[in-house]
Amino acid sequence: MSNVIHETEDITAKFSEFFPPGDPDSTWLFRLMIIRDDVHYARSKLRLKEDAGTDKVWELTYFLRMLSVSLMEANSIFAYKLGKFAKRPPDAVAKKVAPLLRAGVAKLKAVSEPLKTLRDALGGHVRPQAVGKAGVEVVSQVIANHHALSGMVRIGGLPEGVSYRGLTLNSIVFAWPEEDDGDKVIAKQEELQKAVLEGAEAVVLTIDGLLGYFWFKLGLYKPGPDMDFAVRDLHNQELYHRVQHPGGK
User: How do the domains of the chain map onto residue ranges?
Assistant: First the structure.
C-alpha cells in the first residue's frame, strides 16, 4: 500500500445545507459529528511522558473518563442507527461504504465492556452512594483498599491557585473498587487505555465515512471524478492505523 495521504477538502455551505432540517438523518449525524471532534481531540491527549508531572497525569485520567462517555454514546447511536444501513445499503455507493462501517461498529463493540465499566464508575463522576459488585459502598471500599495512597492538595487561596489534582489523579481506581493490588490496577489501566484508543480510532473513522457519504448524497462532497470515496476512505483508514500503531499491531 502506498504512503500517499489523500488531501482534505474544504467545503463551505450553509448549516441547513450540511444538515437539511427535513432530512431524518440530520439529527443523529449532527450528534455524531460533535462526538467525532471531541473524541479525536481527546485521543490526541492520551500520551504521557515518563517524567510527567501531576497535572499531566491528571489530564490523562480526565480524558480517559471523558472518552468513555463519548465512545459509549457513539456506540448507542451506531447500534440504533447503523444496523439497517449496513445490512441493507440503499444504493451502490452505500454498498461500498457499508463494509467500512460494519468494521468500525464491530471494533467499537469489541471494546465496549471496559469502556462501560469506566463510564459507569467515573464518566458521570463518582457517586458516593454507588455500590460495587460485592454490595459494598464504593467510596469506602476504594479508600480502604488503597489507604496508603498519598498526594498533595493546594488550598486556601484564590480558585485559580487551588488544586486537588494530587489526589484526584487517582480517580481511575474507582473503575475497579474491589481491586486492592496497585500493580493490578496499573495493568488494568493500561488495558483500558488500549481499549479507549482502539475505540476512539474506530469512532473517528466510522463517522468520517458516514458524513462523507451523507454529504456526497447531498451533492456537497465530490471526492473525485469516479465519486468512489469508499476506496479512498479504506486507504486512509489503513494508513491512519499504521501511523497510530507503528509497531504493526
Answer: 25-244
Grid coordinates representing 143 are: 479508600
- 227 — pLDDT class (breaks 50, 70, 90): very low
Which phi and psi angles does 86 have, rounded to 5°?
-70, -35
Supply the pTM of this predicted model.
0.81
Q: Which residue has 484526584 as its cell numbers?
A: 168
Copy the grid coordinates of residue 102: 460494519
Q: How confident is the model at residue 132 (pLDDT cuts 50, 70, 90)?
A: low
Is residue 216 within 8 A of residue 93, CB to CB? The reply is yes
Closest CA to 101 of 19, 214, 223: 214
**What is the average pLDDT value for the chain, to the nearest integer?**
80
Asked if residue 205 lies in contact with residue 101, where contact means CB atoms within 8 angstroms, the answer is no
Among 115, 42, 104, which Cα is nearest to 79's?
104
Residues contacting 43, CB < 8 A, separation 6+? 67, 196, 197, 200, 201, 204
Write the DSSP assignment of 98-145 as a string of letters: HHHHHHHHHHHHHTHHHHHHHIIIIIT---TT-B-TTS-BHHHHHHHH
CA dihedral over 115, 237, 62, 46, signed as positive or negative: positive
Q: What is the distance between the alpha carbons of residues 219 and 65, in angstroms, rounded to a whole number?
A: 38
As given in the structure block, the three cell numbers for residue 222 are 465530490
